[in-house]
Write a structure and sequence with these properties.
Number of domains: 2
CATH class of the largest domain: Mainly Alpha
Distance between the termini: 10 Å
Number of helices: 17
Length: 326
């Protein structure tokens, strides 16, 4: 078991290194520091002197990968790659283009993102699985057909419709909750109810249909027929056998959204004025703050890889054969 964990963790490092190298190439080779300065200054006829001043202020005036003007180790350390890319592995995100500390911003904004993402993830997972099991229980009936139609309708509607419609109906007409905004402590609950509800409802269609497909595949297998032959009821078959044996694909699907638990929802946070990491990233893109965008790309990659490792480890809990084969 310990060797399996070590192997999975070691597999993650080459992936993270590759992502970091690709990110560096996109930000500093395809989009050069001169391009960054020109876009940030926003002047039609920007001078080279103003671009040089902008780059020097933000540490973009150094060599990219190898500094021929330095001696010894400084040839490698006095570079943009060392300052802006390798430092990310130590979670030293540096400063934004306007001088703010990115690490401090992340620590502050992660809590609103978690407050909205965790309820959507947990409640949404339970609702989707329950609805899927209900359709499978009444498979080949009008209940199943109606459930599939509802899922397709929900999937076909843009999430923006749910956001704008929810704000208008629940926030403006019924005035049950604020349309947007955020507050600290328990008073934040009234601001989170509507975006959490919209996040759950908008995800029912795709989630429930996917789980329904998994469960239908399981109910046609031999072990299910054996369980029925032993006299188990359909409810016992679904919850004790089908659900248990479908845990691996369920875990695989769940890991995709794990980074959003920390990174937040870009659309929901922006529309509802929640000061989380999602709106933080959107604001950075609009302001062309490349330091923040680069930090958030790297952080999202780390979280996704961590989620993959945790998923591999959770496989061993639901199916020990994975540990033996890995």
């Amino acid at each position: 078991m310990f060797a399996y964990i070590i192997r999975r963790v070691l597999y993650a490092f080459p992936i993270l290194i590759g992502i970091n190298a690709l990110t560096f190439a996109l930000f500093f080779m395809v989009n050069t520091p001169d391009d960054m300065a020109r876009m940030h200054l926003g002047v039609k006829h920007v001078t080279q002197e103003s671009m040089n001043a902008w780059k020097q202020e933000r540490g973009y005036d150094k060599a990219l990968l190898w500094n021929e003007d330095s001696d010894g180790l400084s040839k490698a350390t006095e570079t943009i790659f060392f300052d802006k890319s390798l430092s990310l592995f130590a979670f030293q995100f540096g400063q934004a283009d306007d001088g703010r500390d990115i690490g401090a911003d992340i620590k502050t904004r992660m809590w609103p993102s978690l407050a909205i993402a965790i309820p959507i993830f947990v409640v949404g997972l339970l609702v989707n699985i329950t609805f899927a099991l209900l359709m499978v229980f009444f498979r080949a009936t009008y209940v199943d057909l109606g459930g599939v139609v509802i899922c397709v309708v929900i999937m076909s509607i843009s999430s923006l419709f749910y956001i704008i419609g929810g704000q208008f109906l629940v926030g403006k007409l019924m005035q049950l909750v604020p349309i947007s905004g955020y507050s600290e402590g328990f008073s934040a609950i009234k601001f989170l109810i509507l975006p959490v509800l919209i996040g759950i409802v908008s995800g029912i269609g795709a989630g429930s249909r996917w789980y329904r497909t998994l469960f239908l595949e399981e109910v046609s297998k031999d072990y299910v027929r054996t369980a029925r032959a032993k006299g188990l009821s359909e409810v016992q078959v679904l919850f004790k056998h089908v659900l248990k044996n479908a845990m691996i694909p369920i875990l695989t699907g769940a890991v995709v959204v794990l980074p959003t638990l920390f990174m937040g929802s870009l659309i929901l946070e922006s529309f509802f004025g929640i000061p989380g990491l999602g709106s933080y990233t959107i604001d950075a893109i609009q302001a062309q703050d490349f330091a923040i965008v680069r930090a958030m790309v790297f952080l999202g990659s780390v979280l996704y890889i961590v989620g993959l490792v945790l998923t591999d480890l959770s496989y061993t809990l639901v199916d020990p054969r994975v540990r033996l084969d890995g």
